[in-house]
Structure formats: structure tokens, C-alpha cells
């Protein structure tokens, strides 16, 4: 009977300890969409052609499925331990020329996408052998 009580107690304690332990979960910033900054948007002017807009802003993330004269540039940054930042620029064309520029979000602030140091997986090229990958594979001592 005592062995049964010890076994049940040990099992319950083990289940509680393993289920309640918190080691931590690594989270990282998740950036999606078109990178939008103030320099790019300030170069836009009404009357520009679609090719000129594509040269300044890049290809749009979204084109209107029923209206090819609407281009949406969307940037979404889910910061790991902070808020979500969203920027959106909607461009409307008439007769192949830029007619309207609609901005949403804080486009004036630049987004810092540099990797942060700390716990988690190492960033490629930041480890002890960072130059080794650039040199190519090594097959043994050179003759």
C-alpha cells in the first residue's frame, strides 16, 4: 500500500513539474509585405506612369482583382515582444497615370530590421566560422 501511495505521489509530482516548467519560447520579429519608407513615398508624384511607380516602389503586394488601376503596398511587422506595426500605401491610377496616393500608418518612422542579439538561433554569418561559408567547401589539406 505504501508503494502505491509513493508511486501515485511521485507520478502526480512529476506531471505537475513537467507541465508547469517554463523554459521560455524564442520569438522573433516577423516582417511581411513591401518595405515602405518615407524616401520612397516622397518620390511619388501624381501623373507618374505605372513603370515609374514600379521603379520607385517595386512591385505591389496587392493589385485589385477587379480594378487593375489600384495598387496596394502593405508592410506588416509583428514585433516579437512588442506591438504590431502596419503601413499601407494605396495608389490609384487613371488612364495609366498615378492619380491618388493614400497613406495609412506611420510612414515617417523607419523600421529597424537588424537582428537582435540574445537567446535564440544564431543569425547566418554571425558565428565563429562566419568566413568559412564564403570560402567554399574544404576537402582536406591543400597540396
Automatic annotation (TrEMBL):
GO cellular component: Bam protein complex
Domain Outer membrane protein assembly factor BamE: 33-100
Subcellular locations according to the entry: Cell outer membrane
Alphabetical keyword list: Cell outer membrane, Lipoprotein, Membrane, Palmitate, Signal
Membrane topology: Lipid-anchor
Region of interest called Disordered, as start-end residue ranges on this chain: 104-143
Chief place of localization: membrane
GO biological process: Gram-negative-bacterium-type cell outer membrane assembly; protein insertion into membrane
Function statement: Part of the outer membrane protein assembly complex, which is involved in assembly and insertion of beta-barrel proteins into the outer membrane.
Family: Belongs to the BamE family.
Listed name of the protein: Outer membrane protein assembly factor BamE
Gene: bamE
Amino acid at each position: 500500500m505504501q508503494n502505491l501511495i509513493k508511486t501515485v505521489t511521485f507520478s502526480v509530482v512529476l506531471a505537475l513539474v513537467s507541465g508547469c516548467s517554463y523554459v521560455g519560447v524564442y520569438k522573433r520579429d516577423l516582417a511581411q509585405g513591401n518595405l515602405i519608407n518615407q524616401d520612397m513615398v516622397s518620390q511619388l508624384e501624381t501623373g507618374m506612369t505605372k513603370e515609374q511607380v514600379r521603379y520607385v516602389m517595386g512591385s505591389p503586394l496587392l493589385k485589385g482583382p477587379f480594378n487593375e488601376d489600384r495598387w496596394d503596398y502593405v508592410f506588416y511587422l509583428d514585433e516579437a515582444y512588442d506591438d504590431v506595426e502596419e503601413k499601407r500605401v494605396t495608389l490609384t491610377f487613371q488612364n495609366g497615370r498615378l492619380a491618388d496616393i493614400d497613406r495609412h500608418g506611420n510612414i515617417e518612422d523607419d523600421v529597424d530590421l537588424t537582428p537582435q542579439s540574445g537567446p535564440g538561433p544564431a543569425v547566418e554569418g554571425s558565428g565563429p566560422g562566419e568566413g568559412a561559408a564564403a570560402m567554399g567547401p574544404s576537402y582536406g589539406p591543400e597540396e
